[in-house]
Automatic annotation (TrEMBL):
Ranges of residues in domain Mur ligase C-terminal: 329-455
Key word Ligase present: yes
Native species: Defluviimonas salinarum
Functional description taken from the UniProt entry: Involved in cell wall formation. Catalyzes the final step in the synthesis of UDP-N-acetylmuramoyl-pentapeptide, the precursor of murein.
InterPro entries found in the cross-reference section: Mur-like_cat_sf, Mur_ligase_C, Mur_ligase_C_dom_sf, Mur_ligase_cen, MurCDEF_CellWall_CoF430Synth, MurE/MurF_N, UDP-N-AcMur_synth
Catalytic reaction(s) noted: D-alanyl-D-alanine + UDP-N-acetyl-alpha-D-muramoyl-L-alanyl-gamma-D-glutamyl-meso-2,6-diaminopimelate + ATP = UDP-N-acetyl-alpha-D-muramoyl-L-alanyl-gamma-D-glutamyl-meso-2,6-diaminopimeloyl-D-alanyl-D-alanine + ADP + phosphate + H(+)
Family: Belongs to the MurCDEF family. MurF subfamily.
Location of this chain's protein in the cell: Cytoplasm
Taxonomic lineage from the root: Bacteria, Pseudomonadati, Pseudomonadota, Alphaproteobacteria, Rhodobacterales
Binding site for ATP: G109, S110, V111, G112, K113, T114, S115
Enzyme Commission no: 6.3.2.10
Name recorded for this polypeptide: UDP-N-acetylmuramoyl-tripeptide--D-alanyl-D-alanine ligase
């Protein structure tokens, strides 16, 4: 494998001092996932990375990026010593971006950043050498890591950019220097740090400040803040492309048909109609996929291949993944469907998830309760600011609620929703996720479709884990069922 960083080019990029020669084929910030040959970056987060340098070197790290000689190490070890490790990592990211030939895509948005990045990974990896951010590497250290890992010969690079507070996106966008920048959507999220949704839109639109000359902006239509996005895009971009369901959109969604585990979409590109499939249910996924088609074409990918390959993507765990949990090792019909959307939540993504649940088809006559049910288990939405109680309570009036049989709520904020629900739909309310997780055997029945949704901090993933543990290992595989 070719060297990603040598002691020479890494020292030049960072202004640091290498204690001895090295060649690193990768980059890591965590000894648990370190691969031999990585440059270990001793960042300070919850723990000081310098405490793990000796262990990293023992595990085969090519060198370590440090601000001092750590305990258990010496000048004879391969170290790159810099004044500040995070600043040096940022410099490596800038140098990695500068030497790359790749068409760079930057993605941000209140909802769907990671899913859109992964869709882009699925379609572009079949049309060239692709480099994309891992997991949700979208902050002040995640973006530099993505760029520092960027191979010189990559054809495409996808960088995810997130934020929690004003002023975070613009410097990361300038570091990434994208040829194409996309905003998935703007929704009430992180309202604790912003006065209103207009402020969120302006922060998201700051991604266009990093566009390369001749760069292209891809924005969603049909939002109350679309004019804010469009004004910022027109100021910074050579071309602005709109996607959505509005007349005049360059990429327009005409129809989306939801099945249990698929969305079939009919869209129009200019005057040209086309069909595509997303391997999960959700109109919002179809809209994001339409934006992916726009972005892929903007970086020169073949549109026909892109449209076909959208169907290769599936949501990962915690982001809308659907699975069947078999309750009986003998009778394959004794099972319920679990939709794991427990990674994140805000009012927009909550509404989208409820729409998906409302479109599902429970199975009757297979459980303790004759009728299969659509059940939502909803955890707190965090960082919504002073109107959080009203935003939680408002979920009760979402049209999809008419199709749901029961709603269980987790967390102090979700108490507002629980109290707003009709008595017939009101399930259990618990202060914490472990409390409700302990009730999983009572909540689930064969034939049900169960959605679990909430902000990561609400820990409703513990409920997902408890529901999965109701399954009988090997039951589905033994009979070739779902």
């Amino acid at each position: 494998m070719a060297a990603l960083w040598t002691h020479v080019n890494a020292a030049t990029a960072t202004g640091g001092r290498a204690t001895c020669p090295f060649e690193a084929t990768g980059l890591s910030i965590d000894t648990r996932s370190l691969v031999p040959g990585d440059l270990f970056v001793a960042l300070k987060d919850q723990r000081d990375g310098h405490d793990f340098v000796a262990d990293a070197l023992r595990k085969g790290a090519a060198a370590a990026l440090v601000s001092r000689i750590p305990e258990g190490c010496s000048e004879s070890d391969p170290l790159l010593i810099v004044p500040d490790v995070l600043d040096a990592l940022t410099a490596l990211g800038a140098a990695g971006r500068a030497r790359a030939k790749a068409k760079v895509i930057a993605v941000t948005g209140s909802v769907g950043k990671t899913s859109t990045k992964e869709m882009l990974r699925a379609v572009l990896a079949r049309q060239g050498k692709l480099h994309a951010a891992e997991a949700s590497f979208n902050n002040h250290w995640g973006v530099p890591i993505t760029l520092a890992r960027l191979p010189e010969d990559a054809d495409f690079a996808v960088v995810e950019i997130g934020m929690n507070h004003p002023g975070e996106i613009a410097p990361l966008a300038r570091l990434a220097r994208p040829h194409v920048a996309m905003i998935t959507t703007v929704a009430p999220a992180h309202l604790e740090a912003f006065e209103n949704i207009d402020g969120i839109a302006r922060e998201k639109a700051a991604i266009f400040e990093g566009l390369e000359p001749g760069g292209i902006a891809v924005i969603p239509s049909g939002l109350s803040v679309t004019p804010i996005l469009e004004a910022a895009a027109d100021k910074a971009a050579a071309r602005t492309i709109r996607f959505g369901a509005e007349a005049g959109d360059e990429y327009r969604l005409a129809e989306a048909t939801l099945a249990d585990d698929t969305t079939i979409a009919r869209a129009v590109r200019g005057d040209e109609p086309f069909l595509y499939k997303v391997r999960t249910a959700g109109r919002h996924f179809a809209v994001n996929a339409l934006g992916v088609v726009a972005v892929a074409e903007a970086v020169g990918a073949d549109p026909a291949v892109t449209v076909c390959d959208i169907g290769l993507w599936q949501p990962p765990a915690g982001r809308g993944q659907r699975e069947r949990i078999h309750l009986d090792i003998v009778d394959a019909e004794k099972a319920f469907d679990l939709i794991d959307d427990a990674f994140n939540a805000n009012p927009a993504s909550m509404a989208a998830a409820l729409d998906v649940l409302a479109a599902t088809n429970p199975r009757d006559g297979v459980g303790r309760i004759h009728a299969g049910r659509r059940i939502a288990i909803l955890g707190d939405m965090l960082e919504l600011g002073p109107t959080e109680a009203e935003l939680h309570a408002a979920i009760a009036s979402h049209p999809a609620m008419a199709q749901l049989h029961l709603v269980h709520c987790v967390g102090p904020r979700m108490r507002a929703l629980w109290e707003s629900l009709p008595a017939a739909k009101r399930g259990e309310w618990r202060e914490t996720a472990p409390e409700l997780a302990g009730r999983s055997h009572v909540i689930a029945d064969a034939g049900d479709v169960i959605l679990v949704k909430g902000s990561k901090g609400s820990k409703v993933s513990l409920v997902v884990d408890a529901l999965r543990k109701l399954g009988q290992p090997g039951a589905g595989e033994a009979r070739g069922t779902d």
